[in-house]
Here is the input.
Amino acid sequence: MNETTIRKVLAWEALDSRGKPTVGCEVLLSGGARGQAVVPSGASTGRHEARELRDGGSRYGGNGVQSAVANVHGILAEAVHGLDAADQVDVDATLRQVDGTADLGRLGANAVLAVSIASAVAAAKGQHRPLYEAAADPGAVPLLPLPMVNILSGGAHAGRSIDVQDFLAVPLSARNFSEAIEYCARVRQGTAEVLSEMNLSVSLVADEGGLGPALPTNKAGLQAVVAGIARAGLRPGDDVGIAIDVAASQFLAHDGHYVLSAEGGRRLAPAELVEELADWCSQYPIVSLEDALAEDDWDGWKTATVRLGLQQLLGDDLFATNIERLERGIEEQVANAVLVKPNQIGTLSDARTVVRRAQGAGYNTVISARSGETEDTWLADLAVGWRTGQIKVGSTMRSERTAKWNRLLRIEAELGDAAQYAGSEAINVHRPSSASIA
Ligand code: PGA
Ligand code: ZN
Here is the structure.
């Protein structure tokens, strides 16, 4: 038995940033180190994600997680007892095997992920190393990511005021991580000023800490962010680009058309939506489009990749951090970047596999928080250790968001002159080579 052998696992029902129950877990190692994790949860959840276990019934409107907590305490704790927490692949394979289902729906992906992460955090502590270092490949140089910062929200995160779910700032010309965050905080402030002068509400924040004004059209959102960048004294497109998360699965109708409710119910066929987005890209400095089409609209996605492939085309619901879905994307040359949310797949090792495969195929990787978050900071460490190049955790407000930015700022300070920063290179589109597709 070594210092990092798992001795005990504790679990409890915690709350996420939306006030919804979630699973908290602590793993205790033989050497005395402890690691804790409280897992996040989405709102615009894709159909292909791993399945959270919720209790149903009347507590918390059916969203309680007492059954998932009991699974951690019982069957999962028993399964990992005596394993080496430093062997993440073994811990995760064991968790997956005990659950026995592909989507982890039996014991709950929320239960499984809590143990997976708490075990990684404990292992790093047990080895007296920061998590970003313990989670990295041997010899890999830590890399501070280019942040993608939420400025305006619509869709499922802001009462569906507009159809597009997120408008984000990408600080292209910033020379290091701390300067990048300063640019984004300025853009958020500048955008708030611009909206306030238009008599739009800026006092309420959306789920990810962005502004959630009632705008007349989706383009008005782009216009507001461009004006906010200029108000911040920065150059739209040169200093700060715009990323959007269309989250198109959320407004796909049964007949295969996309319905823009914020624009009088305009109905668009997939190719028409692609043309609409191309029009936005020609007028505004958009550098990244996430979930431009719905999660199962592979044909629409192919059209989008051909037409809009100069921009970063980021698959969130499309890939669901699932290696099989990513393989299909690489094979069919769909999208050129993958959003990585560990809770979409259920274990850290599975998320790690997706990052590696994407990097090998020339796809960009953006590690991401969920709209329902916690005070945890492990996501920031994974971004640095796994060298994802980009990270998306919401706005520069709300503590569950700033917890991650603050952790990255601290890592930057800790690394000092040795800190490498991904910068705008991380968002450049790399055409996959035929060798990596094969
Ligand atoms: P979710 O949103 O966490 O509600 O799924 C985040 C996103 O769509 O990127
Ligand atoms: Zn998304």
